[in-house]
Amino acid sequence: MSQRVAVVGATGAVGRLVLQLLEEREFPLASLKPLASARSAGKTVLFRGESLRVEELRPEAFDDVDLVIASTPDDVAAQFIPQAVERGAVVVDESGAWRMDPDVPLVVPEVNPEAVHGHRGIIASPNCSTTQMVVAMKPLHDAARIRRVVVSTYQATSGAGVSGQRDLVEGSRAALEETDYDYQAFPHPIAFNLIPQIGSERDKGYTSEEMKMVHETHKIFGDDSIRVCPTCVRVPVTNCHSESILVETERKLTADEARALFEAAPGIEVRDDLASGVYPLPLECSGRDEVWIGRIREDLSSDRGIAFWCVSDNLRKGAATNAVQIAELLVGARAAGR
Fold first, then answer.
1. What's the predicted TM-score (pTM) here?
2. Which residues are catalytic, by number?
3. What CATH number was assigned to the domain covering residues 3-126+319-335?
4. Which sequence spans correspond to the domains of the chain?
5. CATH classification of 130-314 is 3.30.70.940, yes or no?
6. How far, in Å, CA of 106 to CA of 297, rounded?
7. pLDDT tens digits for 86-135?
8. Exposed (0-12), middle (13-18) or buried (19+): which is 76, by Cβ within 10 Å?
């Protein structure tokens, strides 16, 4: 069932990846309309060997569109997405504007694909750090019911956009040359440094990024009783978020059982041979759509704990890939008459 699709934010890093994925995955398109801000309108993007002119994002641009994939700041999403829905489109939104709205499904296709059927015109894609974590949690939760998660994230500068990438490159150059650099994306130098704060301060000493991981995990699994303790850290890595994850389950899992569950789960690849130095590395996982898992071991401090290392491309599975997968679910549901 071919779709008339609009990609909002088509000139941004995630938007360009969405276009690439629509082409790579042979998404059924009747037409494609790239949209962006007035500043980017008139530029061209390449799709299936053709240059497409980018149109300005305005309400009328959603006329004659079936499906919208949007990657914009929260305030832009809050303003324009309802206008797309009013004109009959279904929107897959990657911003944080609608994630916790009770009427908006929050979907990771490997985890809760059935939630897509309950939409009222908007489907949200989670925060990138949440996405890879819940994909990793899913097989363990199904097998032994997760009761508690302790997660520390090591988040790449690509998660802060173009300015974040510039800060890493130019800040590193300045540090090596012992000159000054005025950081734009980060409150502290990121070159040769770690910043244990992503987002603004929230209650009880947690940040907004950390609380997203708590609330989004509860919503995706439909279980507010899962206890989540996150610490989010920005690291001087270009791309791919890494996470050290410890889960405690109701039923004990051995490391071998957990490894087998991971290996059988969709969207997960296991690289786990400590003796040979084989485990997921950001440099090797960049440009891939899978969630990569290694360092699988039983928790020495808990009888029912499993610890592991998790890496995923935050621009792909953490954003663009997840959105396109949701769009594919929608097409499948429409074809089935749901």
1. 0.96
2. 128, 241
3. 3.40.50.720
4. 3-126+319-335, 130-314
5. no
6. 30
7. 999 999 999 999 999 999 999 999 999 999 998 999 999 999 999 999 99
8. middle
